[in-house]
Amino acid sequence: MNVLQLSTNENRQSPEACNPSLWAVGGGKGGVGKSIVSLNLAYWLAKLGHKVVLVDADLGGANLHTLLGIKFVQHTLSDYLDKKVDSLNRIAIDTPVPGLRMICGASDIVGLANPKYAQKMKLMKAMSMLEAEHLILDLGAGTDYNTLDFFLYCTYKVVVTTPQPTALQNGYGFIKSALYRAISREFGRNFRLESLIKRATGQDADQPIATMDELIQGFAEVDENYAERLKAIISDFQLYLISNMVKKDKDCKASEIIRTVCQKYLNLEHITLLGNIPYDSQIEECVARMNPAFMTNTKSQSALEFYQLVNSVIKESSHPEKVNDMTPTA
What we know:
CATH architecture of one domain: 3-Layer(aba) Sandwich
CATH topology of one domain: Rossmann fold
Strand content: 5-15%
Distance between the termini: 33 Å
Largest sheet: 8 strands, mixed
CATH superfamily of one domain: P-loop containing nucleotide triphosphate hydrolases
Order of helices and strands: EHEHEEHEHEHHHHEHEHH
């Protein structure tokens, strides 16, 4: 299985002629660095010549623009949802990084933090029509339905964790919640399966279902066709893991731990380890000052790792001969 299929500078369509690749960057715990990861992925894709739109998809507490040193924004998602503008392209603002635009989230609308499912899908379809090659959604923390639905809609589902035990537990919990959200969307209204899903998701503690094998068996006892559909959902569920704030060699095993647990209990086989990002104190300092200098400091090991991560993704694409082997520069 190839990692994310990215086109390179040569031989590709203009952004207007193709739908963007949809990335979602999520995780179960605040503080693992999802926004920093989203920003750096967007930055290095833009530096490699791709047209990128970065979206602050934390509907309850949008502030991603501050990491780019942007203090005030004229337009946000609220303008689109309030129909003050008729196109998301009109609220996608330029950033200091050539090739990188940004859509700022909104936290000032009553009810925006809990839109209906149809509203979310309408918004995602509009995003998929943006004039870009890559769309990166920086999701909020937690496992609310908004976060999970945005995560599931995207083709490339990236989960960020850190080596801390609580982060590993929350990372696995996020993945499990996303998978069961997909299962519930498919089967939730089937009364013959409702009790099984509740047992698997902890809503029925008296008769818990601990593994996906048990759930598949339960589905099969109701109807073998249901079991086959469930297996298809699991098989199609592809994930990409990034371990952030790595300090020691043993910390590099964090993503592998999550993958192993997901394979054992959720039957997820299509999980790719994208890389390990070292802890960088400069990032914390820049975030506090609302200064994006951490992205362009070529002496930073974390910046180099982000560059290599994105470049290694391109190596796994359909055009390995077009990898950019340049040394990263500001």
